[in-house]
Structures are given as C-alpha cells and as structure tokens.
Amino acid sequence: MSTVTAFETVDVRFETSAMLDGSDAMNPDPDYSAAYLRLTTDAADGHEGHAFVFTIGRGNDIQVAAIDTVARRMIGRDVEDTLDDLGGLWRELVHDSQLRWLGPEKGVMHMAIGAVVNALWDLKAKRAGLPLWQLLARMTPEELVSLVDFRYLSDALTPEEALALLRTAQPGRAQREAELLATGYPGYTTTPGWLGYSDDKLRRLAREAVDDGFTQIKLKVGDRLEDDLRRLAIARDEVGPGIRIAIDANQRWDRDQAIEWIRALQPFDLAWVEEPTSPDDILAHAAIARAVAPVPIATGEHGMNRVLFKQLLQAGATAIVQIDATRVAGVNENIAILLLAAKFGVPVCPHAGGVGLCEAVQHFSMFDFVALSGSQEGRMIEYTTHLHEHFVAPVRLERGRYLAPLTPGNGMEMRAESLRDHRMTAW
Amino acid sequence: MSTVTAFETVDVRFETSAMLDGSDAMNPDPDYSAAYLRLTTDAADGHEGHAFVFTIGRGNDIQVAAIDTVARRMIGRDVEDTLDDLGGLWRELVHDSQLRWLGPEKGVMHMAIGAVVNALWDLKAKRAGLPLWQLLARMTPEELVSLVDFRYLSDALTPEEALALLRTAQPGRAQREAELLATGYPGYTTTPGWLGYSDDKLRRLAREAVDDGFTQIKLKVGDRLEDDLRRLAIARDEVGPGIRIAIDANQRWDRDQAIEWIRALQPFDLAWVEEPTSPDDILAHAAIARAVAPVPIATGEHGMNRVLFKQLLQAGATAIVQIDATRVAGVNENIAILLLAAKFGVPVCPHAGGVGLCEAVQHFSMFDFVALSGSQEGRMIEYTTHLHEHFVAPVRLERGRYLAPLTPGNGMEMRAESLRDHRMTAW
C-alpha cells in the first residue's frame, strides 16, 4: 500500500515568439509554455506521475494555480485504489459542483483536471512498465468503458455501443500491436507552413519534408488571400501532385468568408481545411462543410469537451477529428472522443506540436489503431520539429512515420534540466 | 487627464451551503462566492470601478488570480481614453492570443476579462452619474454597435442589422424610460423552489411569493421524478392556476431522459423548463424543444460566450435567453447577446440570485426594454432573497417588480464591511 505524498508544479516557458515558430493567423507570437505537474508517492518503486497543460505564454501561471488546486486533493490518497478506478476519479473531479461552476467542463479548470488525470495515468503506466498506448490497448473492453463518463453522450453513444465497438476490435489486437511496433503510425508535418516564414523558407522546408518521407504537409492560411494563393502555389510546385497539402486557418474566418476563401483555394487540391471558424461553432462548421464539399473540414484542437465533439459528429461538421492531449480532461475524455469518432466512422488525426504535444498525443492514435478503429487509413498524427529535446523520451520518426514509443508512461515527462532551465520564476 | 493607478482583488465567500439555500440537482452545496475587483484612479472625483465574478466556492481563488492577471494590464492607462473606447478594450483583451488560448473565450480567463470590463463600465457609469442601464440606454445606436465584436456573428447578425434594430427602438426611448422609472420591470422568484427545502417550506414560501405580488415562481427539479411530481403538485395547489410555474433541471438530464421527464411534468402547466441538459449541447436542446413543444425550453446562465447563444437561437434550441451578468466577458458581450435575441425575436429573462447577480443583471433587461426590444412582454428578471444586504445599492422590488436602480454604477459594488467580513484569507 502506498500514498500520494506530494506534488510540484512548474511554470515552464520557451521564448518561441522570437523565431516566429508556431505563428499563425490568430496566434502571431506564441511563447510555447507548459503548466507542469509532478506527483510523487511513498512507494518503494520511486515512480512519479508527470503531466502538463500546453499554453502559449501569458496566463500559464493561472493554469499552474488551477492545477495546484486540483492536485492538492490527491495528497494522502491511496495510490493503488486511485489507479484502479481512474474512471471514478475522473467523475469525482469533473463533477465537483463547485469547481464545475468555473467552466462548466471547459477552460482553465477543466484542463487542470486533465493534468491531474494525465499524471495519474503516467504513474499507472510506469508502474505497469508500459507506454500509455500499450497499457490502454491491453485493457479489456469493460475496463475501457468504465473509464468513460457517458453523461450527455447517450443520445449518440451508449455504454453498450461503446463496448460493442471495442469488442469488435478485440480479435485483431495482437496482430495490429505487432504491426505498429514494426512499422509505426503515419505522421504529417506542419513545419514548413508557419505564417511568419518567408517564401524561400517555406519552399526549402516543403522540399525537406518530402525528402524526409512525409506524405502530407500543412500550411497556415487566413491572413491575406493573395498570400495564401502564392504560398500554396509555391508549396504545390515544390512537392508535386503526389503529396497531400492541408491548410489551417486557426479560426480566422466567419462562416460566409470561410466558404468564399476555401473555394478560392480549392484548386490546390486540399487534403483538409482546419479550423475555418470559431471552434465552438458547430452549426457554422456544418454549413461550411456542406458548402465546400468534397473539401474535408477538420477541427477539434480547441474542442473544449466531449459534448462539443459529439455535436460536431452529429451535425456532420467535421470530416476529421483533431483531438489534443491537454485541452480536455485527460486520458478518459480523449477515450470518450475516440469512441464517438469510431461510432460515427470519422478518422482521428490528432493536433500536436507546441511543447510535448507530439510525445503525448501519439499514444491515443496508437491505442485507437490497436484496440478501437483498427485502421490507419486516412489517419495521421501532426508533427513539428520544436522542443522535443526537452523530453525524457522524445518522439522518434522514420520516413514520416511515428515509431511506437516503448518508454513506460504517457510521454509527457520533461527532462529535469529543462524544467530547471525554463522555469519561470516571476511574471 | 487621469490614470488607472491600482487595483485590489478580494476572495469573498459566504457559507450558504449550511442552509441549503441555492441547492439544486447539480449543485447540492454551493458556497456563494465572489471573485471581486476594485479599480482605482488618480482622478479628483475619487470614483472607483467595482465588479466581480460569481462562483460557488472552491476555485474562487483561481478566478481571483485570473482577474489579477488581466487587471494588472490596466495600471497606467489613461482613464478617459479607455472609457471612451470600451469596444476597443474588449477586443484587445479577448483577442490577446496568449490569454485566448486558455479558453478560447470561455471559462476562468473569459470571466476574468469580464470582471475587468465590468469594473470599467462601473467607473464610466459613476463618472456619468448614471446607473448602467440608463448610461447604455442613452448611448447612440452607433456607439452601442461599436461596443460589439461581430466576429463569428456575421452569419446571424451584421453590424448594419444591429444598427437597424437599435434605430427602430430609438423613437420610444424617452417614453419607455419614464414608464420604467414609474412602474419598474417584472421579476419572478426562485426562493420557494430550492431542492433542499422541505415540502412545508416549499408550500409556505410559494404562498408568500404570491402574497408578495410575484406572478411566476420557479422550482428546481431533476433529482427524483416522484419528488418533482409531488413538489409540483404542492406548488400548483398552493398558488392556483393563475400563477406561472417554471422548472429548472440545472443540466441534470441526457437528451432522451429530458424529453421523458418533461412529458411527465407537463400536466402542471410549465412556464418553461430551464437547463434540461448540458449548457453546451445546442443540438440536444433543439431536439428537446421540438419533442416537448409547446413547453418552452430556456437556457443560457452557463452559456459561455456569444457564439453559443448565436447557435442556440439559430437552431431554435431556446425559447427564452437567460443571460448572466458574470459568465461572459462583461457588458459588451451581453449587449451582443441582447442584440442576437432581438434579431431572433426571443425574449431575454436573465439568470440571477447568487451573490449580487440580481443587482448586476437588472441593468441589461432595463436597457433592453428602453433601447432595444422595447417590450416587457414574456420577459422578467429572476429574483432570490439572499445576500442583497451586502451591496451598496441592493435591488428594490415592489409587488414582484424590480424598481429601476437610480444609484450610479453597474450595481456590483459591495459594502466595505461585507468585503472585510467575508474575505477569505486562506484555503
């Protein structure tokens, strides 16, 4: 028997804005940051639970304070009991009525709950000696369903339907796990496409992406139409017709403007159009999707909770579900979203980049492949080159494919030196 | 010329859970709280700007910290310039890309921006010597439209349409202002209906509400159907057929459960059914509204931003728009929501209660009556009896009607003794 004895939070910031890395039409100067959490126990194994919420600078201190509030409640808890019922823990935290008022189920407080939930999953995976994707992919369908809160989902997905989806995928698990370990999972790269990059840099990085084996790149758009036309022409010219090009407007447009703009860019053969408008606007996404069909619309990286994803799917508002590792309330809620996507037959292509989002989110796609959708078709994980060196187990890519991580845990643990060197002490 | 020189935030808490005041199916033990802000300037007039975010206890400290982050940015600003362009200030704060990442436009950070915006409106109203409703109702249509950010709204409401709505109401302003000052604005009371109250207390308070002149009461429901049937029978028996009874499920149900439950309660002649399910679930609200028509569905007190309200109206998901004074980003966003409601011809019946929400939200209904919808038909402001004594200018009701406040400001200023006595110093 062991107990959660302490936690530490760290306000980690990187001055990425100086390089225009990560610049897009809505986020001109992000300073990639992490509101970081480390949970410790008195168990002899010495394992810790690590997790973070990704932010882009100002306000990271508020996110840290919110994590403090939730993490404090873990102190003194029995580790085994807690890790044996992470579905119960999720419900306890998300349905705490006083904390819930601050969302409900969205924004700073919801992401703080996510950090604590994710740190506990990290601890659970390390104790099991497995990377998170493998831990999840080896749980029974019943155990997986018990992790999910079906409140507000039952009109689209019942526990029985979720169980059936997972059971259907059960026979092929071992074979797909072997396949994943052998050949990895497709990635695509956003590295060439940041809005602040020059045309020359775009061209060079697009070429390098193809040389590196990527079959899809993504460009940021939405600031000036003439720039988008020019940059898409450069990119298409450089990569040729065989490489997929997605674009990302980062919420820049209103509904009708999105339709007009996308129609203007459609000749470049778009793999998808990401975040055309407000991430909250289900009806506008659905209207845009209908108007520009067959161009696929993608969204989700700012999707606040499972209720939003449910509606996006019900309304046919998104052809690609882009989960994020730290936007919702942790592993459990992302499993709920994966189940919803599977129910509607919509592929999941996670959002990544930032600080450690690649390291974290890959686990969900790999779990999905082994134990749920059973497919890599039309699916890939976003990749950018930044900041991997700060993680204990950086992602490994080979010819544009993510190799399955083998290090136990959820992938979110940062190196002690990085935590020390990038700790913000005053703001 | 004067400058914003300082601010103070206070974590104010009341132990309301001990009395079961405010208890409902989702919030069994709220401790009504306020994350409170006071802005000061070096102007000779000595006026201050006060505002707060209402919460129900735990996490109020996080809300305070978020307000600190935003309020700090006001220090050193020119007061006149700032108050002359509160539309510009709103855009600056809400579109700060780094802070926006923490929502976007929802939850703790969005409400913090709301507190700062509201404190500036309080200051502006005090300097004008007018209560907020009157300050707003005397602004020109052009000035009012300039306060609103139409991003993500243009598919439902353009600036030109907003201007036309306000201009149409302009001729009758003076007459309606006189009418409001003479006879006030309808209220309804939730005091009898808290879920934790005994049947006897419900019966007694329902009787008192009618004796006090209220023409509508509201009951909390959604915990156990048999309790709801019994309590509605008691209430209907006590008040008779001439008094409207609304019910409030506080987000307790899933879609199909809501439909079934509402049908069971329909015989009691329901004025409206409030928050049947997740406040984020536009599609479920629309489906419920269609299924139980003509029973009106109401929602909005947890509506996170104007994009949500737009969709609720577009989808026919709500027959009554229930704005809240501190859930969105302040006065400007509530004006946007009032304009949307006017465009769709849907009445606004604000959420109130808690700490000071009655004092704050009445200004929006009164502004709407004088300068926008021009009507009190089907409209009323929620009222509960708690905690008014802590405010410098408590609401005044007469025969179930809110009298127009005459004290300059936004109504949110608490008494200095209350701030001192209910300040939380450790948690």
Structure keywords:
alpha/beta, Enolase-like, domain 1, TIM Barrel, 2 domains, three-stranded antiparallel beta sheet, 17 helices, 43% helix, globular
Describe the structure.
The structure is a homodimer of 427-residue chains. Chain A is α/β, with parallel strands linked by helices and 427 residues long. Chain A has 2 domains: 4-139, Enolase-like, domain 1, CATH 3.30.390; 171-421, Enolase-like C-terminal domain (TIM Barrel, Alpha-Beta Barrel). The first copy, chain A, is 43% helix and 15% strand. The first copy, chain A, has helices at 60-71, 79-84, 86-94, 97-100, 107-128, 132-137, 141-146, 159-169, 173-183, 199-211, 225-239, 255-265, 282-292, 306-314, 330-344, 357-371, 416-421, and strands at residues 4-13, 33-41, 48-55, 185-193, 216-220, 244-248, 270-274, 297-299, 320-321, 381-383, 397-398, 401-402. In chain A, strands 4, 5, 6, 7, 8, 9, 10, 11 and 12 form a 9-stranded mixed β-sheet that branches. In chain A, a hairpin with a 6-residue loop joins strand 2 (33-41) and strand 3 (48-55). In chain A, helix 3 packs antiparallel against helix 5 (107-128) and helix 12 (255-265) packs parallel to helix 13 (282-292). The longest helix of chain A is centred in the first third of the chain and has 22 residues, at 107-128. The model of chain A has no long low-confidence stretch (mean pLDDT 96). At the A-B interface, helix 1, helix 4, helix 5, helix 12 and helix 13 of A face helix 1, helix 4, helix 5, helix 12 and helix 13 of B.
